[in-house]
Amino acid sequence: MRPAFVILTVLALAACATPREECIADATRDTKVLSSLINETQANLSRGYAIEERQEVRTRTRSCRGKNDDGSTFVFPCNETDTFTTTVPVAIDLNAEAAKLASLQERLVAAQASSDQAVLQCIAVHPE
User: Fold this and answer.
1) What beta strand segments (E) does 1-128 contain?
2) pTM, full prediction
3) How far apart are the first and last CA of the chain?
4) What is the pLDDT of residues 13-30, one digit of tens each?
């Protein structure tokens, strides 16, 4: 969920950005996502478990009011649906999580080098 939030935030900010800022945001998107995933994985390793977000839906029956054609009112049962997000701890394989962290860190180094070049191109193409 969190990477999606990061991407949506970047996209929302890009809507008001200059062409140079949009170009730089595009160039650094992968590194930001990888950094977010690395932070989440490090937190999982520190805790010893992951935290998963789950959406739950509950339906409640309540009384609703309606009007007849003659203007009189009547009461009838109706359902109201509530959706909310909860977090639950999830067991993880710490060795696999450590391997995932190492892989993400390697990918970040490669993505950072590519991103740095792209940012320099953005600055050259869109001088302010």
Assistant:
1) 50-67, 73-90
2) 0.65
3) 35
4) 556 778 888 999 999 999
